[in-house]
Design brief:
The protein is mainly α. It is built from twelve helices and no strands. Helix 5 runs antiparallel to helix 6.
């Protein structure tokens, strides 16, 4: 175990090269990775439901759009990474878990270094929560505008206008808890915390994780269900160690 941790920590001092081919390959394998980690190929990975990978064909087509999307993706993942470090407790082994996860999903050297060095704070949780709320409100506004346009086309503006106005209020914390990004975030924090504690997380630490879940609008019974999954995965991991005869993991 110590050798694995030291290898991860040496990444900061080693030069890493992530080519366009590597990023493209990582993007094309994202559905497979999502299914492996979460059981569904459409599950968000490291805070993103999907990542747009596009490359210039030499004619300048969509170069600016592609750059903007990539910058937005990078910014969202930085927010996710910082919040995740604080949510999971920020211990050394928890950081290694976050760093390993980022390397698997993103192939980003800055994100990898951030995972190993950033000291998470409560403000990181707040920033990521505000980011999700802003995205949710933006999505709701677009849907409201589409509904309004459709109502004009169908000459049924009275009914649809009333329906639109009733749905245009600011998103609530409960609605935030329905986002798959939130469930994945809480699950990732729990997995990192369990890795840090070797699947022996004290009760006070579990309660802290449940508090993080509540702050993102996730019901406690859902959070407990996620923790149950993490515990079962820990039991399966120990069974794997015995089945494959790995005495160094005992």
């Amino acid at each position: 175990m110590k050798s694995g941790v030291s290898c991860m920590r040496r990444v900061c001092s080693a030069p890493l090269v992530f080519s366009a081919t590597t990023s493209l390959r990582c993007g094309s394998s994202s559905p497979w990775i999502a299914r492996l980690l979460y059981g569904s190929s459409t599950t968000p990975l490291f805070g993103l439901r999907s990542t747009t990978y596009a490359w210039s064909k030499g004619d300048g087509t969509n170069v600016q759009d592609t750059k903007t999307v990539q910058e937005e993706n990078d910014a969202a993942r930085v927010l996710y990474c910082k919040a995740l470090i604080h949510a999971c407790g920020g211990g050394r082994l928890a950081r290694d878990w976050v760093a390993g996860y980022s390397a698997l999903v993103c192939s980003s050297e800055p994100l990898l270094v951030l995972a190993l060095r950033h000291n998470g704070t409560e403000q990181d949780l707040e920033r990521y929560r505000n980011h999700l709320l802003a995205n949710l409100n933006s999505s709701r506004a677009k849907n409201d505008n589409n509904n309004h346009d459709n109502s004009n086309q169908n000459n049924n503006s009275n009914y649809n206008s009333n329906s639109s106005s009733s749905n245009s209020s600011t998103a609530t914390l409960e609605q935030l808890g329905d986002l798959p990004e939130v469930r994945c975030f809480v699950y990732d924090a729990m997995r990192a915390a369990a890795f840090h504690r070797r699947h022996k997380v004290p009760e006070e630490e579990r309660q802290r994780l449940y508090a993080v879940a509540r702050s993102f609008g996730l019901p406690e019974d859902t959070a407990r269900g996620l923790w149950w999954v993490v515990e079962k995965e820990g039991a399966i991991e120990r069974e794997k160690q015995r089945a494959f005869d790995h005495p160094w993991c005992e």
